[in-house]
Design a protein that fits this description.
- The radius of gyration is 26 Å and the shape is elongated.
- The chain is about 50% helix and about 20% strand.
- Among the domains are: about 90-125 and about 225-345, no CATH class; about 130-215, Pdz3 Domain.
- It has about 350 residues and is an alpha+beta fold.
- The chain is built from nine helices and ten strands.
- Strand 7 (about 180-185) and strand 8 form a beta hairpin.
- The protein has helices spanning about 1-30, 95-120, 140-145, 165-170, 220-245, 255-270, 270-290, 295-310, 315-345; strands spanning about 35-50, 50-65, 125, 130-135, 150-155, 160, 180-185, 190-195, 210, 215.
- The longest helix is centred in the last third of the chain and has 32 residues, at about 315-345.
Length: about 350
C-alpha cells in the first residue's frame, strides 16, 4: 500500500507539473485549452471552470492537456464564440515549439529546484577530501583511534587526495596480511594509528568502516551546485540510453511497477531520500520527453524544427500516422517492461 501511495504522489507531481507547463504556455500564447486531465482512460471526475474541463481519470499513469487544433474532429468542444486564431495550428512555429517544449522544461526546472533543496537541506557526501564523516559500528575503524572529522593524510606511506583513494589503497592486492598504518590529522595535529583490516566475508573486500562527511550548501550556492549535479546526471542518463540502444551494455529498464517499488523504498528511507528520488524522476521524464521519438514531445518538436528550416509543414496526415505508430510502440514497450517488473517481484 505504501508503494502505491508513494507512486501516486510521484506520478501526480510529475504529470501535473509537466502538463501544467503545456497549459501555462498555451494560455500565454492564447491557445484554447479544452481539457486538463490527470490520468488516462474513463472519467472519474470532471468539472468545467471557464473554458477548460478539469478531469480525473481511472488510470493514474499519465495525463494530457487537450488543445484546440490537435484534433480537428472534436468540434463539439468549441465554445459558441469560437475564434479560429486560438487554434494551435494557427500559431507560428516558434509559439508551437514553446508550447510543446514547456512540459519537459517544467520537469527539468523542478528537478533542478528539488536537487537544490536536497543539497541545502540534507547535503551530499564530500568525495573531494578524505575526511571521515561517520564511523560504522563493529568495523576495524571503530577499534582504532580514528574519529569523525579526521583528515586521512596517508595509508602505508601513500598520500591521499580524494575519498576514493582510501578504498584504492586498502583494497591493494599486494597487501597480503591486511596490516595498515594510517596517518591522519586532527585539530591541526598529525597522528598515526596501526590496524589490521581483514577481508569482509560478505563483500569479499577489505572494509575500513568509515563514511565520507555530509556537506550542505547555503541556498544561493545550492542552486549553482544543483545545476552541476543535474547536468552530470543528464549526461549519465543519455549515456546509459545510448549504450542500451547500441546494445554495448545490458541496462535494465524500469516501468510503472518498478517505479512504484523504488518510490516506496525512497519514502521509507525518509523525507530527503524521497525528495532526491523525485528530483531524479523529474529529470528522467524531462529528458526522455525531449527525445526525437514519435508520440513524445521531442518527436513533435522535431517536425516543428523541420517546418522552421524548410518553411513548409509536414502533411498533417503523415505526421499523425507517424505519431500513432510511435504511440503503439511506446504502449508495447510499457506492457513489456511492466511484465518484466511483475515477474521480478514474484521471483523476489
Amino acid at each position: 500500500m505504501l508503494n502505491l501511495i508513494s507512486f501516486l504522489i510521484v506520478i501526480a507531481i510529475c504529470v501535473i507539473s509537466h502538463e501544467g507547463g503545456h497549459f501555462a504556455a498555451a494560455k500565454w500564447r492564447n491557445v484554447l485549452v479544452h481539457e486538463f486531465s490527470f490520468g488516462m482512460g474513463p472519467n472519474l471526475f470532471r468539472k468545467k471552470i471557464g473554458e477548460t474541463s478539469w478531469s480525473l481519470r481511472a488510470f493514474p499513469i499519465g495525463g494530457f492537456v487537450k488543445l484546440e487544433g490537435e484534433d480537428e474532429t472534436e468540434t463539439e468542444l468549441r465554445p459558441e464564440n469560437y475564434d479560429p486564431l486560438r487554434s494551435l495550428g494557427h500559431k507560428k512555429p516558434w509559439e508551437r515549439l514553446i508550447i510543446i517544449a514547456a512540459g519537459a522544461a517544467v520537469n527539468l526546472l523542478l528537478a533542478w529546484l528539488l536537487t537544490a533543496a536536497y543539497l541545502s537541506g540534507y547535503g551530499v557526501y564530500d568525495l573531494n577530501r578524505p575526511v571521515i564523516g561517520t564511523i560504522i559500528q563493529r568495523t576495524p575503524a571503530q577499534k582504532s583511534s580514528l574519529l569523525p572529522g579526521d583528515l586521512i593524510i596517508s595509508i602505508n606511506g601513500i598520500k591521499l587526495h580524494k575519498w576514493e583513494d582510501i578504498s584504492n589503497n586498502i583494497r591493494n592486492t599486494r597487501n597480503k596480511n591486511g596490516d595498515f598504518v594510517i596517518v591522519y590529522k586532527r585539530n591541526g595535529k598529525q597522528n598515526t594509528t596501526s590496524l589490521n583490516i581483514p577481508i569482509d566475508k560478505e563483500y569479499k573486500v577489505r572494509l575500513l568502516g568509515i563514511r565520507p562527511r555530509l556537506t550542505t550548501y547555503p541556498i544561493y550556492k545550492s542552486l549553482s551546485e544543483s545545476f552541476s549535479y543535474s547536468w552530470q546526471a543528464s549526461l549519465a542518463i543519455l549515456k546509459a540510453l545510448v549504450t542500451l540502444i547500441t546494445g554495448k551494455v545490458h541496462t535494465e529498464i524500469t516501468g510503472p511497477v518498478g517505479i512504484a517499488v523504488m518510490a516506496g523504498d525512497a519514502f521509507r528511507s525518509g523525507f530527503w531520500a524521497f525528495i532526491g528520488f523525485l528530483g531524479i524522476i523529474n529529470l528522467n521524464l524531462g529528458l526522455l520527453n525531449l527525445l526525437p521519438f514519435p508520440a513524445l514531445d521531442g518527436g513533435r518538436i522535431f517536425f516543428i524544427l523541420i517546418e522552421m528550416l524548410t518553411k513548409h509543414k509536414v502533411p498533417e496526415k503523415w505526421e499523425a500516422y507517424i505519431h500513432y505508430c510511435g504511440f503503439i510502440i511506446l504502449v508495447m514497450l510499457i506492457v513489456y517492461v511492466t511484465g518484466k517488473d511483475i515477474m521480478h517481484l514474484m521471483q523476489h
